Amino acid sequence: MFSSAYKYKVNQWYFRPTDVFLASYPRSGNTWMRLLLSDVIQHLGGEKTQPGGNVIPDVYKVDIEDWYRNPRIKIPFRIIKTHEPLALISDYRIIYLFRHPADCLCSYYHYQLRSPRFRENNSGIDGFCQNLINQWCGHINGYLEAAKTGSDRLFLVSYESLNINPVESLKNVCNFLDLDITEAQAQIAVNNQQFRQVQTLSQRGDSQTLGFAENGGYQNFFRRGQINSSTQELSENTRTIISHKSQDIYNQIRELESQQLTNINSN
Q1: What is the pTM for the complete model shown?
Q2: Which domains, and CATH codes, for the chain?
Q3: What's 87's DSSP letter?
Q4: What is the residue-wise DSSP string for 93-160?
Q5: Which of 142, 194, 216, 230 could form a disulfide with 106 if both were Cys (CB 3.0 to 4.6 A apart)?
């Protein structure tokens, strides 16, 4: 949907019933969560961890079967990054990351600016965000409707919650995955994968330490990582259009996220 369709189709033949998908619309915190979970996975495997060190594959870029022959990955299931809509992965366990649409789309715009073709033909940040807000709504809505059924195979995580309390968010995700981690282990992962530290790795182009290579380089990959940064970039008209189309959907999915957390804390 958003990247190499060929690689995705090849990998799709080898999906397993036990696979877990780390899903999101682009620029919603997927890579940060991959790094946090990778830190936990390696820590549970007895390794000393450091900034970077991703061990969770991107379904659009690598051969999943080859990737998971890595003996360092010592959990009994595979976690796979994807940006696909729910309809294509609905039979699997899913962690769904979502982000306020204005921030998400602004970040996506700057990510796309890495492409010379995009730079030549783009209509500016306001036009880009206005053109994609319906796509964002459609992506979110599929997962929202599934969450409304109370499915125990879908876990919601907002970028906002992850940003404000990453230790708690990481522990909750690990609980969903049945990975038994301590508060101290979660804190180590968060300390290792702080935004500025992984941003520094990306600015150096250190793909080996990061654990993933990025087509077109890493510029603007870890850009700001802030909440409400879009208010400084978008016109009032664009913010109004985004709010009109998406605020109800966003509010609903945040409420369902809150309900999930309440259920976790009450058990």
Answers
A1: 0.94
A2: 5-266 (3.40.50.300)
A3: G
A4: EEEEEE--HHHHHHHHHHHHTTSHHHHHH--HHHHHHHHHHHHHHHHHHHHHHHHHTT-TTEEEEEHH
A5: 230
